[in-house]
Design a protein that fits this description.
The complex is a heterodimer of chains A (257) and B (434). Chain A has 257 residues and is α/β, with parallel strands linked by helices. Chain A has eight helices and twelve strands. Chain B has one domain (70-376). In chain B, the strands form three sheets. A ten-stranded mixed beta sheet of chain B has the order 4-3-7-9-11-13-15-17-19-21, covered by helices on one side. In chain B, strands 5-6-8-10-12-14-16-18-20 form a nine-stranded mixed beta sheet, with helices on one face.
Chain lengths: 257, 434
């Protein structure tokens, strides 16, 4: 089953074209890594997919589970199962983690036509998910990400993902700012969520993350296009030779559907 | 102009007709005469008056306020109570409603009475904390006050329940003007919680003119909460002023949600060493509302502390003014004073004039102040939406998060919960109006 189809996607910010014809198909259960040097358009891609304002789509389309993703508001995407794990999770003083988790889960459950969870069921559920990412319960009662270390913020993202059980998770530079222990914990959390019904798009500059979360496909993004696709071996190649060669790569022949 | 010239209501004439209160009390009588004289001389302030620079009373001057009730008012206070169990005094349209009140069984050491029934004792404390020379409403209030609450706590007494005052403008008499004076006297080593709510039904346009005078003896501690949720056509002018002896503490929380025009003057005089004042403020305004908070803290002796946080949320065409003065007098070494005013603007049409001021005449002090004006953080908004919250809820949540630390400082849990509910209901939808 096709989870996500990106067809000839062009996107600009302030008149400057960043994405210049992206083609990508992600099937249910697959993990895709999108790698590329700085400025290749990685963050733009994740922002466009999750609906951040400020981008203009000039050509192409994105189909998510048979729907036109780009015409949905960010919250509608979330409620339909798209999740973005942020590169820089924002701090929200005054909003407790538990409030956020509950509001987010209930928004999604409501969309699915389910009842809100009562306090006890909710806590039981959250606790089980916290164990997955080795988070202490005190984090529930602190303001969202406020005063969290880099690793704690990323674990908090994975906690939200685990609770909301998305069908398509987009992970933006999840390994940035993580030491090796935190990277392991986060990766274990993600691996536990892998399933035949769930797809992942991991956007990353470094190969390191892919040692822990092994992708089915690796794509190289450069100057707004996917210039090379392969399996996990491609990532290792990149690690060895760096990104310098991608600029000399021929025009992409287009992603096979 | 320094003076407002065009005042349609003849307040002086009303003062002449209010004889009952002053009949038997020489001090009260003298005060009223002085007030009448002062009001005739100074009237109400115009925009040229520094403390009224951003708040125009022109519209106020145009109103024909009424001082006789046309029919007795009634108010259902069940929705207005902030705590269930309290020593409660209810004032409706300027008159004490004893059936709605519960002041008949007070513990030893506590007096809670209508001002009109404690003229002798209360008169000793009148106009001790305020000056009629100051441009504003003090003279008017002094010549027209005819009700209020008098609270006295004797030495070594800790009051077990909050004392709650509920003032309602029922709307039965349009443009009805209330002039209230509250007097709170806390003896040595005493402690009390005082909650005052000002409310009215949606169509109750009128005036609430109130002065609260507070005297805190050595080591007295007053937790003081004011919630103003009057109708959007109402005028509210208020002064809260306290003098504080050694080791005394005044924790003041001042929440403004209602009224077309609301002005609060909050003043603490720290007169004894180790005395402390907390000034917590929150204002939520929308539509054409105008709210003006003027605060002043006088650190007059060494080793006193103050902590002031005022926060505001402005939407639509509303206008807010904050002017906070902290004065550290010459001998007030080791003063520790902190003041901040932060504002969240939800629309392009609103306006905030903020002026934190510190005048420091001592050299060994720790003082900080600041003000900030900001908008909803777009990254936070996107984050919440990416987790499934719709835009309106996300904006409301961020607005509440901005205000929440003022509420967090409320120590009484029941009160905190009620105030949270009141504020949640009044959260602006927060959609940017362009």
């Amino acid at each position: 089953m096709k989870m996500l189809e990106i067809k000839n996607l062009h996107a600009s910010i302030e008149g400057k074209e960043i994405l210049r014809g992206i083609n990508l198909t992600v099937n249910a259960g697959e993990v895709h890594a999108i790698m590329g040097p700085n400025g290749a358009g990685k963050s733009t891609l994740s922002n466009v997919l999750t609906g951040r304002e400020g981008y203009e789509i000039t050509q192409g389309e994105v189909i998510y589970k048979g729907q036109n993703l780009l015409e949905l508001e960010p919250e509608e995407r979330a409620r339909r199962g798209v999740f973005l794990a942020f590169q820089y999770p924002v701090e929200i003083p005054g909003v407790s983690n538990i409030y956020l988790l509950k509001a987010a889960l209930n928004a999604i459950r409501k969309h699915q036509g389910l009842e809100e969870l009562d306090a006890i069921d909710f806590l039981t559920l959250v606790r089980s998910k916290m164990a997955l990412v080795k988070m202490d319960e005190q984090f529930l009662h602190r303001s969202v990400n406020e005063g969290f270390s880099g690793g704690e913020k990323k674990r908090n993202e994975i906690l939200q993902m685990a609770l909301l059980e998305p069908q398509l998770a987009i992970m933006d530079e999840t390994d940035s700012g993580l030491d090796i222990d935190a990277l392991k914990t986060v990766s274990e959390g993600v691996n536990a969520l892998r399933s035949p019904e769930r797809s992942f798009v991991m956007i990353t500059h470094y190969q390191r993350l892919l040692d822990y979360i092994v992708p089915d496909f690796v794509h190289v993004l450069s100057e707004g296009r996917i210039v090379k696709s392969g399996d996990k071996e491609l990532a290792k190649e990149l690690e060895k030779s760096g990104y310098s060669w991608v600029h000399d790569a021929p025009e992409p022949e287009g992603q096979p559907a | 102009m320094k003076v407002l010239t065009d005042i349609h209501t003849d307040f002086s004439a009303v003062a002449n007709s209010r004889d009952i209160m002053v009949a038997d009390n020489a001090r009260w009588k003298t005060l009223r005469e002085q007030a009448q004289h002062q009001f005739a001389r100074m009237g109400l302030p115009g925009r040229k008056e520094e403390d009224w620079k951003y708040t125009s009373l022109w519209q106020f001057g145009q109103e024909q306020f009424v001082h006789q009730v046309s029919q007795p008012g009634y108010a259902d206070i069940h929705e207005l109570k902030l705590v269930e169990d309290a020593y409660r005094l209810v004032i409706v349209d300027g008159r004490v409603d004893l059936t709605a009140s519960s002041i008949d069984r007070l513990p030893d050491g506590l007096t809670v009475t209508p001002l009109s029934q404690s003229i002798e004792r209360a008169s000793e404390f009148l106009n001790q904390q305020i000056s009629m020379e100051k441009p504003g409403f003090n003279a008017m209030n002094t010549m027209l006050m005819n009700e209020g609450v008098f609270i006295e706590v004797t030495e070594n007494t800790k009051i077990d329940k909050p004392i709650e005052l509920i003032v309602v403008n029922s709307g039965h008499t349009q443009y009805y003007a209330m002039h209230l004076r509250h007097v709170i006297v806390l003896g040595k080593d005493s402690q009390a919680t005082f909650i005052e709510t000002y409310a009215g039904n949606d169509k109750a346009n009128g005036l609430t003119d109130v002065v609260t005078e507070i005297s805190l003896a050595e080591n007295a501690e007053l937790f003081h909460y004011k919630l103003q949720r009057e109708s959007l056509g109402h005028y509210h002018v208020a002064t809260m002023a306290a003098s504080q002896a050694t080791d005394s503490k005044w924790h003041n929380t001042n929440i403004s949600l209602g009224a077309k025009l609301a002005r609060n003057d909050v003043h603490s005089q720290l007169l004894g060493e180790q005395s402390h004042v907390t000034m917590n403020g929150l204002y939520l305004v929308t539509g054409e509302q105008h709210v003006d908070n003027h605060t002043r803290i006088d650190h007059s002796v060494p080793n006193t502390t103050s902590e002031e946080v005022y926060k505001g949320v402005l939407d639509e065409q509303s206008h807010a003014v904050f002017n906070g003065k902290v004065i550290v007098h010459k001998d007030a070494q080791k003063t520790d004073a902190n003041q901040s005013n932060r504002n969240l603007l939800l629309s392009r049409g609103c306006e905030i004039d903020t002026k934190p001021e510190m005048e420091i005449y001592a050299d060994d002090v720790k003082c900080g102040h600041g003000s900030a004006v900001g908008q909803i953080n777009e990254d936070q908004l996107f984050f919440l939406r990416s987790r499934g919250l719709d835009e309106v809820s996300a904006r409301s949540l961020l607005t509440f998060a901005f205000a929440v630390d003022v509420i967090e400082r409320i120590t009484n849990q029941e009160l905190k919960q009620s105030i949270t509910q009141v504020i949640e209901k009044r959260l602006p939808k927060g959609v940017v109006h362009e």
